[in-house]
Design brief:
Layout lengths: L3 H16 L7 H8 L7 H4 L4 H7 L2 H9 L5 E8 L5 E6 L9 E3 L13 E5 L2 E5 L12 E5 L4 E5 L10 E5 L2 E5 L11 E6 L4 E6 L7 E7 L2 E6 L10 E5 L4 E4 L2 H4 L6 E4 L2 E6 L5 E6 L4 E7 L10 E5 L2 E5 L5 E5 L6 E4 L9 E2 L4 E4 L3
Antiparallel strand pairs: 1-2, 1-24, 1-25, 2-3, 4-5, 5-6, 6-7, 8-9, 9-10, 10-11, 12-13, 13-14, 14-15, 16-17, 17-18, 18-19, 20-21, 21-22, 22-23
Protein name: F-box/kelch-repeat protein SKIP4-like
InterPro entries: F-box-like_dom_sf, F-box_dom, Kelch-typ_b-propeller, Kelch_1, Kelch_FKB95
Pfam family, one: Kelch_FKB95
């Protein structure tokens, strides 16, 4: 016998089941369960259904994992091969294999560029500016969304730049100094606000074009400039967010900043590669540089770059040779597995680390 109420109830239950992340569970409980799936399996989660894919790719998912300390940090390295083309690799530090994996799909227009910025905001990585032998400096910006595994063109810089500093401070990207086109101001910087998806141009005469390294420490941006050919002294400037101006950094603080640097818990570590690989630490209380130790040439293959995760930092050199250093146990240095290909890849720019969702 036809029973409209029963049929309608069955349809409503079917629609509810289709809309729910997990049948029979409220969405908050389902999210509680799914968000605990390791990041390496997120690609499989997106294959289950359109609803699951939308959730895994959402800002809600990213925010939930961050809030509950479920996010996982992966390291991305931008490299150049022997054909002089850019490529990039990813490393999951928590993987048992601990090997670098080639990531495909870089935008074709950037493959030959040099001097690009490489920075991360939220769950997105940005490739900024750059130039080439037959291409003047550009302000183009490309954005990679890790949850979608896709590149898109983003809002361009206010001015063309290459070989410039790039840092994140207070949830905004700073693109600072560098070389540009004839119309560019070398004593300038751009600030990207993700809320408005726009860049704001600023200028300060204390910024110099020749930038070699940069770090964020104590809520300020420090830039190491080219060494003076006359005095051989290291020159650096620091950005004060409260005033929005650049000032000369203290000479004693930058005296031994002669290599790639990372900041861990407010402490500055520098890898001096001028004679072997020597690790130095800036002691703020006594205002002096303390030698931590030398790394064996059998473990490192300079030139190297540094990237920090928690209380550890990773030293990445030629061929993506990688070692891990635990600052809580200065005697512990671990060799990580490397990916070896027919071409030896050299790190040519900053290696970024960030917490994003696959």
């Amino acid at each position: 016998m036809y029973q409209p109420g029963v049929v309608l109830e069955g349809i409503n239950q079917m629609e509810l089941s289709q809309q729910s992340l997990i049948s029979g569970f409220p969405d908050d409980i389902a999210l509680f369960c799914l968000a605990r799936v390791p990041r390496k399996y997120h690609t499989l989660l997106k294959c289950v259904s359109k609803r699951w894919r939308d959730v895994v790719c959402s800002e809600e998912w990213h925010s939930y994992r961050q809030k509950h300390k479920l996010d996982e940090t992966w390291i991305y390295a931008l490299c150049r091969d022997k054909l002089d083309q850019l490529c990039w690799y990813v490393l999951d530090p928590n993987s048992s294999r601990r090997s670098w994996k080639l990531v495909h799909g870089l935008p074709p227009r950037v493959l030959k560029r040099k001097g690009m910025g490489f920075e991360v905001l939220g769950k997105k990585v940005y490739l900024l500016g750059g130039c080439g032998w037959c291409e003047d400096a550009t302000g183009e910006v490309y954005c990679y969304d890790a949850s979608l595994n896709a590149w898109s063109e983003a809002s361009p810089l206010s001015t063309a730049r290459c070989y410039f500093a790039c840092e994140v401070l207070d949830g905004k990207i700073y693109s600072i100094g560098g070389l540009g086109s004839n119309s560019s101001d070398p004593h300038s910087w751009d600030i990207y606000d993700p809320c408005t998806n726009s860049w704001k141009f600023h200028s300060d005469p204390n910024i110099v074009p020749e930038i070699e390294d940069s770090v964020v420490m104590d809520g300020k941006i420090y830039i190491r400039c080219g060494t003076s050919a006359v005095t051989s002294h290291v020159y650096a400037v620091v950005y004060e967010p409260s005033s929005g101006t650049w000032q000369h950094a203290d000479a004693d603080m930058v005296a031994c900043w002669r290599g790639p640097a990372v900041v861990i818990d407010g402490t500055l570590y520098v890898l001096d590669q001028s004679s072997g690989t020597r690790l130095m630490m800036w002691q703020k209380e006594s205002r002096e540089w303390i030698p931590v130790g030398r790394l064996s040439s059998l473990l490192t293959r300079p030139p190297c770059q540094l990237v920090a995760i928690g209380k550890k930092f990773y030293v990445v050199g030629k061929g993506l040779s990688t070692i891990m250093f635990d600052v809580e146990n200065v005697s512990s240095v671990y060799m990580l597995g490397c990916i070896w290909t027919s071409h030896e890849h050299e790190i040519i720019h900053k290696i970024c680390w960030f917490t994003i969702l696959d």
